[in-house]
Amino acid sequence: MLIPPCQTATNLNNSAIAHGFFGSEGGFSTGLYQSLNCGLNKGDDDLKVMQNRQLICDTMGIQTMITIRQVHKNNVLIVNSDTKSGQEYDAMVTQTPKLLLAIKTADCAPILLHDPVHKVIGAIHAGWRSAVSGIVANTIKAMESIGANRNNITASIGPCIQQQNFEVGQEVFDSAFDVTFFTKANRTAHYLYDLSGFLLNQLKKEDVKSITTTDLDTYSLEKKYFSCRRALHKKESAFGNQLSVIGLV
Predict the structure, then answer these.
(1) CATH number for the domain that contains residue 143
(2) Is 179 part of any domain?
(3) Mean pLDDT over the full length of the chain
(4) 64, 114, 132, 215: most buried, per Cβ within 10 A?
């Protein structure tokens, strides 16, 4: 069996959870989707995508994977054993064991969360829109609604596009309530946005005490991660999605 590389979230290490940030390596897809593409309906062979997802389930030791249709908003799905995949949310939380919460990314930031005391986990898809609209705060509240305590939560921000490669326009700058995380780009009315830095700050504001970040750049690490922006700049016709996953064992 293939065992795809997995960047684990070190501060979440706990025998009660299976978790990690997967990249683009170690799967069955070919061409522009080589090789661990986990994004359905993107032009790849869906059978190979499902094989890739199954490979991650096998690697994590949890066979039920829950995915969401991520829409760059701030709503959070509370997951239980009856929850179906494909609903429109940008974060999930659960206290139900043997469910693998899976977040798809290709430059946006995945965040994995765990309250080891109360056995509650969360997973966030954070692009700039969901980040500035409060996805972090809403996810912490959702975790608390099913028994977590924010003072016990550990969090890790996974691979995402880093500031030096994340140029944004005036509309993104104008939408932000904290301009600390922008520097001016070479083009007029354009900025470089520190998405992971902003998310780190949001977690701290929510009283999350233990936070790590991989600081891995999906844009520049071409052999390890899919990147929407890199595909756009290279004028490629398609790109894949990597998965970040967490589950209570």
Answers:
(1) 3.60.140.10
(2) no
(3) 97
(4) 114
Residues of the chain above pLDDT 90, percent: 97
Instruction: Record the pTM.
Output: 0.98
Domain membership flag for residue 173: no
* Complete DSSP assignment for 33-64: GTTT---TTSSS-HHHHHHHHHHHHHHHT---
Contact yes or no for 23/242 (Cβ under 8 A)? yes
* Residue 20 lies in domain: 6-160+212-232+241-248
Q: Band the pLDDT of 2: cuts 50, 70, 90.
A: confident
Quick one: pLDDT at residue 1?
A: 63
Residues contacting 100, CB < 8 A, separation 6+: 18, 56, 57, 60, 62, 64, 65, 66, 245, 246, 247
Let me know if residue 186 belongs to a domain: no
Q: How far apart are CA 158 and CA 202, in angstroms?
A: 15
The answer to whether the beta carbons of residues 107 and 129 sit under 8 Å apart is no
pLDDT digits (tens, 9 = 90+) for 18-64: 999 999 999 999 999 999 999 999 999 999 999 999 999 999 999 99
Collect all residues with Cβ–Cβ distance below 8 Å to 168 and sequence separation of at least 6: 128, 182, 190, 191, 192, 193
Query: Per the domain annotation, does 115 fall within a domain?
Result: yes
Say whether pLDDT at 110 is over 80. Answer: yes
**Which pLDDT does position 176 carry in this prediction?**
86
Domain count, the chain: 1
Amino acid sitting at position 71: V
List, as one string, the DSSP characters of 162-186: -GGG-EEEHHHHHH-S-GGGEEE-S
Q: And the tokens for 36?
A: 């661990």
